Amino acid sequence: MTDRPLSGKTVLVTRGKEQAKEFAEKLIKMGAFSLEIPLISFSLPPNIESIKQVLKEMNRYDWLIFTSKNGVDFFFQLIDEAVLKQGLPKIAVVGKKTAQAVKMKGLQVDVVPKQFVAEGLIEALKPLIKPGDRVLLVKGNLARPALKQALEEMGANITELIVYETKLNESGKAQLIELLIKQKIDVITFTSPSTVKSFMQMLEGIEWRLLLQRCAVACIGPITKQAAEEAGMQVHICPENYTIDDMIKAMVVYFSDREE
Questions:
Q1: For residue 216, what pLDDT band results from cuts at 50, 70 and 90?
Q2: What is the CATH number for 100?
Q3: What is the pLDDT of residue 260?
Q4: Among the listed residues 159, 152, 112, the one whose alpha carbon sits nearest the alpha carbon of residue 135
Q5: Fewer CB atoms < 10 Å away: N or C end of the chain?
Q6: Is the dihedral of CA 142, 144, 145, 147 positive or negative?
Q7: Does residue 1 form part of some domain?
Q8: Residue-wise pLDDT tens digits, 53-78
Q9: Could you tell me the residue range of the domain that residue 220 belongs to?
Q10: pLDDT digits (tens, 9 = 90+) for 35-54
Q11: What ranges make up the beta strands (E) of the chain?
């Protein structure tokens, strides 16, 4: 296999601008042409003072849980240095990238699940969470409720803290539609249900199924895949491990199988 196995393929990267760069660089290394049209954007919520108030009382909690790398980034934008110096509770994260983001802040991660989805973290926490444990669940406004519900069933007291908001980014709408009409895209990548939702909103009123006939649809994991399928898309690529690297490997396998 060539060291640039995606040569000649154009891959659409739809994730938020902050995270698109790393993904694009990895695709280019594999020979692909990376097109970046971020379908979502992230920002701080309007109620910063009430969030900071919660963060001042970190010593009340037994567990701190992050459901995404974004959650880590925004959490550390909002927390005071003085609170950090006092130390944080035990930390659990939903996946490898989120764990890396925490470690970059010089902190230890106590729990990383084998499966990088909420369900994997639930399984990992079952033997560790005790009834009455106080848990601060740091998340975005569109996070699924599965983790909170499962923790409540374990008897934990949950405080949900929304530290960022995900919004539809319509700035690339005309470009996206033009690229699809001209059949310039070989693979459309989705890295979260919110990227799927934004994509469908942008193509509202357009016969998008015809435009996607020659595109492969790649989803980072089962939750995103489910969102794409519920929207009516056929998903061609979905890796067993839910990371960008594994998604790119799955793309390589998909195209090499087709060429054979």
A1: very high
A2: 3.40.50.10090
A3: 66
A4: 159
A5: C
A6: negative
A7: no
A8: 999 999 999 999 999 999 999 999 99
A9: 10-39+171-259
A10: 999 999 899 999 899 999 99
A11: 10-13, 33-36, 40-43, 63-66, 90-93, 134-140, 157-168, 187-190, 216-219
Q: Strands 10-13 and 33-36, how do they pair?
A: parallel
- 74, amino acid identity: F
Domain membership flag for residue 196: yes
Distances (CA, A) of 222 to 23, 24, 241: 19, 22, 10
CB atoms under 10 Å from CB of 236, counted, come to 16
In this prediction, residue 241 carries a pLDDT of 87
Residue where a domain stops, chosen among 129, 151, 167: 167
Q: What is the pTM of this model?
A: 0.82
Domain limit, last residue, from 144, 167, 190: 167
Q: What is the mean pLDDT of the chain?
A: 93
Say yes or no: 156 and 200 in one domain: no
> In this structure, are 29 and 136 located in the same domain?
no
